[in-house]
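=== Structure Prediction Worksheet ===
Name of assembly: unnamed complex
Input type: mixed (protein and possibly other molecules)
Chain count: two
Listed entries:
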Amino acid sequence: EVQLLESGGGLVQPGGSLSLSCAASGFTFGIYAMTWVRRAPGKGLEWVSTIRENGVNTYYADSVKGRFTISRDNSAKTLYLQVDSLRAEDTAIYYCARSRDTWYFDLWGRGTLVTVSS
Amino acid sequence: IVLTQSPATLSLSPGQGATLSCRASQRISIYLAWYQQKPGQAPRLLIYDASKRATGIPARFSGSGSGTDFTLTISSLEPEDCAVYYCQQRSEWPLTFGGGTKVEIK
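=== Predicted Assembly ===
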């Protein structure tokens, strides 16, 4: 089955860290750019970060630049997001999504919830 | 680029047509997509490049527009169309999404 499955979310205190993962199955992971998108409670979708197929080129939203790090392991078919120096406003469901040749997302995971609270 | 969606909520009966709007703060040609998200589910790509239906999307969903004004039309609402609909632009980085329109079925 073609799917993306996120994991690693949880409750963390402000200033804390988490490692999010997104496991891909059913398709050739290495030919897709991969992206993290989040949805905070009561708000819309927000693009967070993207990594190109080669794992070299990365892009970040200004709101997370310097605090989040995106990476991928094409052999393990897994996308990662290291989230550090977390703030209350980072509380959201984090989704991974794929795109190819365009920056539209044709496959998404169900998300993993990150809650930042003391 | 800021995307503004309207209305925030749409409440309609099955069989009625729905018109959702997305307005961009600057011209984005046709580089706009629409997604559907049901509660507890992953978003699903409906429309890309303003008017192209994604694979497997029913014909009752259609998109139109270019420049700054875009529309998603659902020709005849089905109960399963109850969801939040988001637009997204890919004309410029950072990629941005609209705030969403919630479609309720009476």
